[in-house]
């Protein structure tokens, strides 16, 4: 191997061809060096190969093959050079092989034993690793749970609050959950579910709170009458207390009431004070407040909930709208409310309860209702209340019910005035109710007066003893010195109805005064109201009853005479009624604008009506007697005595005028004169009756006898006070007419006709003509003047002549 190396290294001697070859080899050697170096771009190197000379590619390939062979030879040489070392190395490796296998066995055994020994350690290590992982997970879990637990606790708290219906606190919890707790753990699914569920819970709370509010509204609608009843009772107790204090302190002014129903009582309204004013048994009720009677928590809760949810305005609008609807329902009365006082009381209790609740809500909440809203509700309610009371009070015909209504209106107004509501229009309404009350009183007293008149015996009151006299005088202010001097038994001029009427007028004044109580009016106003109502009683009711009584057919002359006497005494008692009213009101009659009683004119009118009725009934009675007259108008001679009917009539007139002795003189004289004139006129009409065709001289003589009896009656002064023959002048027309026919003094009549001092001045030509023609017809029928005596024929001619002259006088008067 070494020899070969030496021989290969020896070069051959150079030649020119060798030089060229060397140069070419050098060029290609550079090319191969460049290719082998891979540093220069191959494109340039290869281009130089192909572009330098023709057949360069061929030569390059040859050189390349040569270079490859050289490299193969070098490789072979290198392998040959290192072959022995390789063989030695292989030999050494083979020697080491056995040791390696032995070592491998030892290592394997050691590894096995090591693996066996490390299995337990590995297991323990894995357990430690697992525990460390668990510990790390637990620490992470604890850390995360520390973030989640507050969220869960708050959510659990939220659920508890919802369950216990503490919705306002629940909303606050929701707000904390959303803003504080959930953002910390928002990556967890349960928090997302919570966050998505909170808006639903809010809506659920809104719905529940609104449902509670509706229940509340329904509850206060049902309990408003109880609230109102309590408020009114407290107002009554307070007014009683003020009245007691005022009487004790001598005060007569009115203090505005204060109540504790809304929890805003003044300091002096203590429980002890109320117990003095009211019943001690009701002490527990006296301190009741609106909260005691109505649970307002749904309103507060709902208001706070909607405020937190930012929807307060919606809640306020809903609440006000619903309360307006309830107000309209409360103000709607029952159809039969006017029938009983309980109907009015329930109506007022409901209204008071409604506005007490509104007043409490106004002061207990901020802005849920405003003063403007409550004022609007009150004004609407006030108009409705006034209209309702006007309508229903007009149906009342019981004064006691109207009085109860007035008392209810007063305490109703006082109660609401204590809560700051204006009530002046209610007191104005009371004046209208007062008129209605007076009307019902007048109707009631009209029945009382009629009953008194129907049960009266229309005869003077008999008094047997002094005690009876004192009883009558205590009921009626009667004073007569002459009667007082008389011994018992004696009679008072008026009948039993007079003290009864007087007492009933006083009762009416008391009844009218009851309405004026608690109206907060001055004594002067109360005095004026009493006098006006009393005037209505006298001028309208009592006057109407007297007029109707006088016109009744069963009331005779005796009763009419007693009525005149009664009205005279009642007229005299009017000044005592004035004093009675003055004592009640303590208002002097001399006060300016004080109304006077019109009783004088009332009783005067009634007395005049009675007097006129006396005249009428006398005339009617006279007409009844006249209708009994039965003259034989064709009789030849008179009976020589007056007719029976006329004597009966005169006897009747005498007895009647004896009753008139208690009447005022002018009344009796007027009645007597009227009766005589009517009798004279009736007798004259009997002579001139158109149905009477014939009258004989005998009938004239008989008629003359009757007229003589009338004149005798007139001259007997049946009623004292007539001067001379004044009463006889009532028959002067008849007397002159009868004298003319009895004496047959036609020449004198015709000669003196028209003269102021004529003997037959009161004889009218037409009257004389009518009577003369009746007598002329009689003479023709009997043919007395034409068949027998000559003087009778002359008389017939005279009659005809007189008839002609009378006709000319009558025609002259008509022309």
TrEMBL record:
<comment type="similarity">
    <text>Belongs to the SEC15 family.</text>
</comment>
<dbReference type="InterPro" id="IPR007225">
    <property type="entry name" value="EXOC6/Sec15"/>
</dbReference>
<dbReference type="InterPro" id="IPR048359">
    <property type="entry name" value="EXOC6_Sec15_N"/>
</dbReference>
<dbReference type="InterPro" id="IPR042044">
    <property type="entry name" value="EXOC6PINT-1/Sec15/Tip20_C_dom2"/>
</dbReference>
<dbReference type="GO" id="GO:0000145">
    <property type="term" value="C:exocyst"/>
</dbReference>
<dbReference type="InterPro" id="IPR046361">
    <property type="entry name" value="EXOC6/Sec15_C"/>
</dbReference>
<feature type="region of interest" description="Disordered">
    <location>
        <begin position="1"/>
        <end position="23"/>
    </location>
</feature>
<feature type="domain" description="Exocyst complex component EXOC6/Sec15 N-terminal">
    <location>
        <begin position="63"/>
        <end position="232"/>
    </location>
</feature>
<protein>
    <recommendedName>
        <fullName>Exocyst complex component</fullName>
    </recommendedName>
</protein>
<keyword id="KW-0813">Transport</keyword>
<dbReference type="Pfam" id="PF04091">
    <property type="entry name" value="Sec15_C"/>
</dbReference>
<feature type="domain" description="Exocyst complex subunit EXOC6/Sec15 C-terminal">
    <location>
        <begin position="426"/>
        <end position="774"/>
    </location>
</feature>
<dbReference type="InterPro" id="IPR042045">
    <property type="entry name" value="EXOC6/Sec15_C_dom1"/>
</dbReference>
<dbReference type="Pfam" id="PF20651">
    <property type="entry name" value="EXOC6_Sec15_N"/>
</dbReference>
<dbReference type="GO" id="GO:0006893">
    <property type="term" value="P:Golgi to plasma membrane transport"/>
</dbReference>
<dbReference type="GO" id="GO:0005886">
    <property type="term" value="C:plasma membrane"/>
</dbReference>
<dbReference type="GO" id="GO:0090522">
    <property type="term" value="P:vesicle tethering involved in exocytosis"/>
</dbReference>
<dbReference type="GO" id="GO:0006886">
    <property type="term" value="P:intracellular protein transport"/>
</dbReference>
<keyword id="KW-0268">Exocytosis</keyword>
<comment type="function">
    <text>Component of the exocyst complex involved in the docking of exocytic vesicles with fusion sites on the plasma membrane.</text>
</comment>
